[in-house]
Structures are given as structure tokens and as C-alpha cells.
TrEMBL record:
The lineage of its organism: Bacteria, Pseudomonadati, Pseudomonadota, Gammaproteobacteria, Methylococcales. NAD(+) binds at G11, A12, A13, G14, Q15, I16, S17, N105, Q112, V129, G130, N131. This is Malate dehydrogenase. InterPro entries: L-lactate/malate_DH, Lactate/malate_DH_C, Lactate/malate_DH_N, Lactate_DH/Glyco_Ohase_4_C, Malate_DH_AS, Malate_DH_type2, NAD(P)-bd_dom_sf. Catalyzes the reversible oxidation of malate to oxaloacetate. CDD domains: MDH_chloroplast-like. Belongs to the LDH/MDH superfamily. MDH type 2 family. One of its GO terms (molecular function) is L-malate dehydrogenase (NAD+) activity.
Amino acid sequence: MKTPAHIAVTGAAGQISYALLFRLIAGDLLGDDHPIVLHLLEIPEAMAGLDGVRMELIDCASPLLHDIVISDDPYVAFENVDLAFLIGAKPRGPGMERKDLLRVNADIFAIQGRALNVAAKRSVKTLVVGNPANTNALIAQHNAPDLPSENFAAMTRLDHNRAVSQLALHCGCSVNDIKRVIIWGNHSTTQYPDLHHALVRGKPALDQIEWDWYEKEFIPTVQNRGAVVIQKRGKSSAASAANAALEHMRNWLFGTPAGDWTSMTVLSDGSYDITPGLMFSYPVEIENAKYRVVQNLETSEFSRERLKITEAELLAEREEVRHLLR
Ligand code: NAI
């Protein structure tokens, strides 16, 4: 029997976690021979709800579920964890501006970054899902100076998956026939879903689709998909977000398939002329649990303009939270 993996999930009584936790204990991340200890963090007001989730987890009688720790203290919840899904965040309330949301959530991720720095395993891989995800990940990383910066990421995998599915639907093929889609930049409407390097059935996507569809339908559809799901469901994407978080972490641990890459928000090292030190979504290949930004892709004028737009938004977000950065 393998040693149990300790997995932290924050916002554990929320809707994304409700879709994620039961998949974790079914072995969807680490396989059906790897026991798990869940470390669930919530705010005090949500602890009763979290206790209900804990009861349901127990009621699954999962042979993989070794133990459950629940706490409203991040220093307790993060103790010795191998993986951390930072999902919990405050939703935007009535009359709240994006800036206010950024400030409220920024403090949460500063506190949690500090707690990870002290309590988690030195090798902990941290995936930030809670919005604004890129900037929250930047804050958490800055507040955890003793952990490797490359072990912090934010989630643009849902956007990546949305792009893959939209392209497959348009081309009348399977998602298995789509490779090398890219989401660049921020997990927001300024993100740039790029098909310049994408392949459909092994051939360039842009030779098989109309430019007009790409520019006027595909890009806005992917950028605005989250808002449309909210309009229809009355709640934000949850099961697809949990699925994306799981796939992001699975690729990070076990690698990307040969001939393909994925999109992942990581610390910019200046690749593609993006300001170093921003949390920016890039195409990455992963091997031996380490990501590498795919290099030397040609960027057209069209692409460069869009990269600059999403970079500018991230720079503005960073200014708002500068007091929390080192
Ligand atoms: P939710 O509102 O159902 O759950 C959030 C949970 O976080 C609540 O239970 C709340 O009590 C908890 N929470 C708040 N502050 C906390 C703190 N300081 N520590 C621990 N827990 C805390 O929200 P949902 O739908 O689960 O979404 C969570 C976040 O994920 C939101 O910020 C949402 O915008 C974001 N999201 C990100 C996506 C991405 O692709 N990166 C996609 C979909 C959602």
C-alpha cells in the first residue's frame, strides 16, 4: 500500500469542492491504489456545512479515504500537505466592484500563502482556482518565500478545455483529434484563446476553419463562457471547474501526453515578451512533475496585440495588491 497523499482543499463546503472531493476519493487523481488524507479548510460560518460534506465523504465508504482533517485554521489544514487546491474565495457581492473583490480575496491568499510556507511539505504543489485566480496565485506565492516558486500555479485549464471542445464541435471531430490549443494570459475575459498552433486531425486548425469564425465566434465564446453558464444555471461553473482542477493537477504530477501541451498559469520568466514575475497562462509541457513553458512559437501581429491586452490587465491587478507582495 502506498503512503497516503495529503491533499488540502479550501472552500471545501463550496460548490466546486463538492464536485471535486468525491472524485478525489474515487481515485480520479492519483489512481485507485493511492490512499488519501483530505485536509478541508473553511471559514467558521461554513463549518456546519463542511461537517455535512465530511459525513457524506464517510458515507461513500471509499477504500482510498484514509482520514479527514477539517479546520477553519489554515495552519492546521495545511499541515504536511503534498497538494493544495485553493478554491475558497468570496464571491462578488451586490454593488461590489472588481477592485473590491480583488482586495477582499487578496488578503485571503496572503494568509494562506503564509500558512503554506510554514505548515505544508516543502514540495507542496499549489493550484489556485479562486478568483481572480492569477493574481491570487501571485499573492500566495509571494507570501510563501520558502517554497519553490514553480510549485504555484493558477487554473486556466477550464478555459483550455472549453476551447478544445468548441473547436471539436465546430470541426465535427472528437476532442481526441484536437491538439496544441493555447490559452494565454489572465483567467478573465481578456484571456487569449489561440489556435495559431492548434492541430485538428494532425493538420493546422487555421487551414480548416474560417478566420471569421475564429475571430468573431470562437474567441468571444471561450472568453465569455463562464458568464453564460452563470446566466443559464444561476451559479458559476462547478463540475467543469472541478474537472479542470483535477486534470490540471494530474498533468502536473504525471505529465502531458507526447505531441500535445496544456495551458497553465505560471510565473512568467519573460517568455513571449511578458513582464517577468506575472502569473500568466502559457502553453506548457510537463515531464517528471516539472512544467516547461513551450518556447519559440511564432506569434502573429494579431496574437501579440492580444497578449499585450491581457498582460496589461494583469499588471493593473498587480498594482492593486502590491502591498501584499514582496
Ligand atoms: P462557492 O461560493 O460555492 O464556494 C466558495 C467557498 O469558499 C465557500 O464555502 C466559502 O465559505 C469558502 N471560503 C471563503 N473564504 C474562505 C477562506 N478564507 N478560507 C476558506 N474558505 C473560504 O464558490 P465556488 O463556485 O466553489 O467557486 C470558488 C471560486 O472559484 C470562486 O472564486 C470562483 O469565481 C472560482 N472559479 C474559478 C474558475 C477558474 O477557472 N479558475 C472557474 C470557476 C470558478
